[in-house]
Amino acid sequence: MNALQSRACDLFGTQYPIVQTGMGYVAGARLAAATSAAGGLGIIASATLNYDELVTAVKKVKERTDKPFGVNLRADADDASKRVALLIREGVKVASFALAPKEALIKQCKDGGLVVVPSVGAKRHAEKVAAWGADAVICQGGEGGGHTGAVPTTLLLPQIVRAVDIPVVAAGGFFNGAGLVAALAYGAAGIAMGTRFLLTQESTVPDAVKQFYIGKAVSDTVVTTKVDGVPHRVLRTTMVEALESATPFTALPMALKNALGFKKISGLTWASMLREGAAMRKHGELSWAAVLMAANTPMLLKAAMVDGNLDGGVMASGQVVGVIDDIPTVAEVLERIMSEARDALNALGATV
Fold this sequence. Notes:
The chain is of the alpha/beta class.
């Protein structure tokens, strides 16, 4: 039996048990198509796309590869059901979610033949979505970039593997073949990576931003709640330092300024932004400054990931940024990881 042909490969229809995560303003059609074409599971990030942009992105991936791919969706989006219908209609393989979707949305996905893969950061969350019919979960430990928890992958992963009988894909701290083998040894069905895929040639992130990432050490990320009110692992930047040092008296004006910018870019009305903010306060007990920052976090990401603003943007990053020192093609990344994994298994006496 091939130790690297996992349940995730069978579920997703991929050659390799490697998933490229849905990073806003990073995981577009080009990166997702390249990942799927190379044998992994590419995922389009749709939270930063409007509906028509998502339609275009899905078509572009289909034009570039006939391999399975996925789309990451916001479960709380007003048009979530419409987007799911699009995925079903276009024959997309996987619907992934950063926030746990409601049971009804999972049912819509599954009734349409989609594979449902929520991301989770706690055992109870995995148990909940598994009971609702999720086909697999991505388990992200605290080393991961973006919204993250406090429990490291090596402690969170075995908890979740024991708690559910669906495939568990490990995320947070993975970048090479040894990590893949370690995840499989813990009982995972594969790995998911964000920062490693961000730092590839097919990633559309500006070159100056990629070089900024490459120059960082393991200690150059920080988990802050000042971006949007919940723990967020990002690179240390001038913007993040300003947010971290802001007082309640300076945070609100800064948030209002950024919210105005986001309103202009997104075309959202004040009414829709305030409705979302009220819902966030109800569920997360956030300050209004944090609510406003959360509402415009996509703008802060766009400033760095699209516009290349190193001082005025926010850059989500896993701690693995400190051990990545090159910008290869996606195909080279996957081939390297699989080769390293085979070498690691052979060194342990396994047959692959």
